[in-house]
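Session log. Operator J.P. requested a structure for one protein chain; no other inputs attached. Running the standard single-chain path with token output.
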Amino acid sequence: MWKSVMIQRALPLTLSYILLILAALSLDAFLHFAHMAWVGRYLGVPGTLFFLLSFGYSARKKKVIRNGALGIFLRLHCNAGWIGTLMILIHSGIHFNALLPWAATAFMLIVTGSGHVGQYLLKKVKAEVKMKLQFSGVTATEENLADEKYWDTLTVKTLEKWRGLHMPLVAVLIALTFIHIAAIAIFLNWN
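Structure written below.
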């Protein structure tokens, strides 16, 4: 089990996702400690812009954008998504005064998490499992090999279902974001 793809790949990615959340909480706490909590209020706009930038990958994949390597757009998608998530998490802070922003934040965390274990990871895991299965008889006993094959196969089958979760959640996140922005525009004191 310790040599399975789940432990070697999924666990480190889970830890990096948790570190993203801890970084946001730490930065938000620092802003509060430094009496600069107001900065978080203004991180919502650039965070949303980073999310919009991340849609370049989908546009390139669907050939709306015709030039550029798909791998570069995928890296842009991942990095812009992480930066946007960090900014939005700091923007949402630790304030419990409205349900809509918290729902949007929860969906953003789910979308970020599902994207984190998404297609990029799935391709790497599939390639690694395929290689392990090709060369498995050389280094492993049959009992250990059967255990590894089980965990590897389970990991791949679970990861293959990610897009079915990721895309509808993105749609809900977009809707919640627009509702949040509209509510701010309507209820903001413009005087």
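Operator note: Residues 5-187 form one domain.
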